[in-house]
Write a structure and sequence with these properties.
alpha/beta; 9-stranded mixed sheet; 6-stranded parallel sheet; 23 strands; globular
Length: 590
């Protein structure tokens, strides 16, 4: 037997991603693969590198099921902010937005505003680099990059629709694809699935808007599709056993029921695997998560659905510079402000008494589609040119000034613009409700949104947040089940070759310190310079001392909170992962 190892991890507590009880073992890797997992000590003499792991956890790498790294993977393919937190596989192409078929400007415009990523960096990158025209070419491009984590991708419906209809018609509420155009969309989607894409992502929420000058503030193209168009594409996904990812219409959340029926077999057809964002305890709609979970479990157990909501395992705390945040797209006064790109035009609008009256009326509205709770007592200033305002809520400042809180908010933006930085918690504010959602069999743990909303939020460390839940005095799940939810369960549901620590598997794993994790403050605020986007300060997570190493394809990608010098610069770490129907064998959540 060949006992030479590239990496030998000694004496760690192994959780293999199956949910089975942990055990102490040595793990050996050679040529990118796990070659031995032994409860007896393995020989160290021929190991190129020995890593002592006594008292540490050894787990499969985490899988991030919801990112918007589509632009960043082209610009900085190492994706170090995820890798440093144990992510070894990331999904792109979410929410109808991929960069497979559309031309450079269209691809940029359906991506940058909704994901709050500067167009001035994304568009030149696409104009320079986008040479591919189809799924095969796109995958070849990804395979040519020095990827950090492994990458899986959906085909975005907005991408598909724009490429076939043209962006002008794709965002025209009256335009409908011809029969020939529908057949072209079906052919492209079918080809993409054959190439190994996960399936298709869609979007029915009208708050997500197009960037640029040509069709600015139109909803994403997928939003304009009729259900008959969706049904044809869903039928193809169902026939191919592929996956649908989407978001419900938050102005009319009842449309989530249509997704449930689309997923269900009803005893008459194949099930359509469907995943939507998101199962969270939202302040604006208390109790809705319970109703949603109850209904989804009924469809899954009784009507033949295979439907999963994506769930975030940490409080959904967000930050905004002035009014620059997607939550303001959910009502007309906010939309009107975000439609304007220049501060002069915005300030003129904010000073208009009629506009302020409209904003107040929409701010007070208690019912209808909304995610933001619209409560300025729960919006605290964290940075401002007036230091005396820092730490105060907008409502508190308004009371001191004798103003309505909306007037105060708009005055602060007029005075300070994007230098006014404030924060609020939108969801997952009650630990017991969040824990309940993380135990739901109809949920998948994820929804980090990594690579998007760079100044608004950072959940790159979602995997650590999930594992920390298992270390609470009253744990949400056992550590083994928490690891399974982050790895093996996801890999099995999506049918990808990842998420398990076993002999023969690709060497994607994490070694972490549970003692450091137990005492860590995972929601601590941090920023870092993002060099490929002009050095802008983006929100990140910094939880040093927890992850000892992140290993991808047998290579140490991060060690002691530092990236390997070749991460994102040389091949050998991540690869493009194709979906392989038939791999899924995940047990039910106990």
């Amino acid at each position: 037997m060949d006992t030479s190892y590239d990496l030998l991890i000694q004496g760690g507590t192994v959780m293999d991603g199956s949910g089975a009880p942990a055990f102490v073992a040595d793990v050996a890797l050679r040529q990118g693969k796990v070659v031995e997992i032994s409860r007896a000590p393995l020989p160290t003499e021929c190991a190129a590198r020995v890593l002592p792991a006594q008292g540490l956890w050894v787990t499969p790498g985490f899988i991030d099921i919801h990112t918007h790294y589509d632009a960043e993977v082209l610009m900085a393919p190492g994706l170090p902010e995820s890798v440093r937190h144990g992510v070894t596989t990331a999904f792109i192409g979410s929410c109808s937005i991929s960069m497979i078929y559309t031309e450079a400007e269209d691809a940029s415009d359906i991506f940058t505003r909704v994901e709050s990523i500067p167009r001035e960096y994304v568009l030149p990158t696409l104009k320079k680099d986008k040479t591919w025209k189809d799924a095969a070419g796109y995958i070849a491009k990804l395979e040519s990059l020095p990827l950090g984590p492994n990458i899986c991708s959906y085909m975005g419906h907005s991408d598909l629709r724009t490429a076939v209809m043209g962006l002008a018609r794709a965002v025209d509420p009256k335009a409908r694809p011809s029969e020939a155009e529908m057949q072209t969309m079906e052919r492209h989607l079918d080809e993409g699935i054959s190439q190994g894409l996960l399936g298709m992502s869609g979007m029915t929420n009208p708050w997500d808007k197009v960037d640029g000058e040509r069709y600015r503030s139109s909803a994403l193209p997928s939003v304009y599709a009729r259900w008959s168009e969706y049904r044809r594409l869903h039928k193809l996904l169902r026939r191919r056993g592929a996956i649908l990812q989407s978001a419900p219409n938050l102005n009319n959340p009842v449309n989530a029921v249509f997704y449930l029926f689309s997923s269900a077999s009803l005893g008459l057809r194949k099930t359509l695997k469907t995943t939507l964002i998101t199962l969270m305890d939202v302040k604006a709609k208390p109790g809705l998560d319970r109703l949603v979970a109850l209904g989804t479990n009924f469809f899954n157990r009784r009507l033949g659905a295979n439907f999963r909501w994506q769930a975030l395992p940490q409080p959904f705390q967000v930050y905004a510079d002035g009014i620059d945040f997607i939550i303001f797209e959910e009502f007309p006064a906010g939309e009107a402000a975000l439609h304007l790109k220049h501060d002069f035009d915005r300030n003129k609008l904010f000073a208009d008494p009629a506009y302020r009256s409209q904003f107040k009326a929409e701010y007070r509205r208690k019912w209808g589609g909304k995610v933001w709770h619209r409560d300025f007592s729960d919006a605290h200033v964290i940075a401002c040119p007036e230091p005396s305002l820092v730490g105060k809520s907008v409502q508190q400042i308004a009371a001191e000034r004798g103003q309505h809180e909306v007037d105060t908010f708009l005055d602060l933006i007029i005075d300070h613009g994007r230098a006014l930085r404030w924060s609020t918690v939108i969801a997952n504010h009650r630990p017991e409700r969040m824990a309940s959602n993380l135990r739901e069999p109809c949920s998948l743990v994820g929804f980090s949104d990594a690579g998007a909303h760079l100044r608004n939020m950072a959940f790159y460390n979602f995997g650590l947040a999930m594992l920390q839940q298992s270390l609470l005095p009253r744990p949400t799940l056992s550590p083994e089940k928490a690891v399974w939810r982050l790895s093996g369960e996801i890999a099995d549901w999506y049918e990808i070759d990842a998420g398990r620590l076993r002999v023969g598997a690709q060497g994607d794993l994490v070694v972490l310190d549970p003692k450091a994790l137990r005492r860590a403050k995972l929601d601590a605020y941090a920023e870092a310079s993002f060099e490929v986007m002009g050095g802008m300060q983006r929100m990140v997570n910094r939880n040093d001392g927890i992850i000892k190493v992140t290993v991808i394809n047998g290579h140490i990608a991060f060690e002691d909170d530092k990236p390997h010098p070749e991460l994102g610069r040389a091949p050998g770490f991540g690869r493009f992962l194709r979906r392989k129907p038939g791999l899924g064998t995940s047990p039910a959540l106990a």
